[in-house]
């Protein structure tokens, strides 16, 4: 099967109600926490993407059995530190930074050495951000100059730490929280705001974790408490919904309702940013489910969007969505300003560099000042040329961005690395086709 697609026409107007794939961050956390619970957990609507399948393969390799019946995954945990780890175990996190960083926190007591590897993209990413706190706990960890492969051997002498998490990284924070589960005493994290799914899931499991909301989040985790197996239903992923939100906004006379999407405050930066640009997106039928807030997202096409001076305090809650937000800025009237985007270059690919390259490819003027950018919008942007997107680290979000640009701006596109969609959103192209996109 070929690994590229062609798009040669804009999408025609549509009015649809859709569901997007389940949330990737929550899916991975539910698998990892179920592997540490006492008994058989039942997880429905688990995202079946490569990152999550790698999480399932990983717990299996560490001695945790699971099976699927109908729409439910059953995961058989033996409690905290209940892995059965064989000698010379290697686990492969594939493309997933979340899996790689979080699993380290659950290996901190392993009697046998475990080697952690990943794909080409993950092997280029920085792990010093987790290695540093793990060493404070007293974990034995060796790496290839702070990147993969990493070897970790557990210790029986872990000590609780107080850690200032200054990056605003949920992966770092969650790695520390999971390490704290296996550590006696109370670990404290002074954490810059970032997505809080791990904290919410542990609270939902009645684990002794407490969060004081001040300028920073101060998180207290008491170690060595067991928690029971649980039932969990994973909601839709706003990071996947983002592409359909922008597709609708930038199309003609179209409307979409995206049902049952997670609207955790730490994730809805895109809604806040686009609404400041005049998008008029509405969240309806809000409810709390399994400790997370869920809603239906209503979007209509908008011909007049205005530029934004984006407050950097929204960066962490929109960190995975900036690529597609840039596309809206390209069509908005005026100059949009975004700042302090260095974290974008630490993702599956250097997304800040690539986002700028992409905008220039479609004829948009972009000025860059280190990690700040100005995008000169062009509301009458309409493409007619040929474009080819080669996505050398196979970043799923670059693939999705390219498809949405092609379907809303016109031009003849060849977009490579179709398979990258499997990382987070395997049904992406199928859903696009059901709402009328012509994709070959
Ligand atoms: C994630 C956290 C974010 C995000 C990533 C998923 C998570 O990364 O970009 O896609 O599930 O914890 P950082 O923690 O590096 O900011």
Instruction: Please state how the strands of the largest beta sheet are arranged side by side.
Output: 2-15-17-16
Bound molecules: shikimate-3-phosphate
CATH architecture of the largest domain: Alpha-beta prism
Q: In CATH's first tier, which class of the largest domain applies? A: Alpha Beta
Report, as a whole number of angstroms, the end-to-end distance. Answer: 12 Å
Number of domains: 2
Number of helices: 13
Stated plainly, the CATH topology of the largest domain is called: UDP-n-acetylglucosamine1-carboxyvinyl-transferase, Chain
CATH-assigned homologous superfamily of the largest domain: Enolpyruvate transferase domain
User: Low-confidence spans: pLDDT under 50, at least 5 residues?
Assistant: none
Give the strand content.
25-35%
Structural class estimated from helices and strands: alpha+beta
Q: What's the average pLDDT? A: 97
Evaluate the radius of gyration: 22 Å
Features:
440 residues, four-stranded mixed sheet, 2 domains, binds shikimate-3-phosphate, UDP-n-acetylglucosamine1-carboxyvinyl-transferase, Chain, 22 strands, alpha+beta
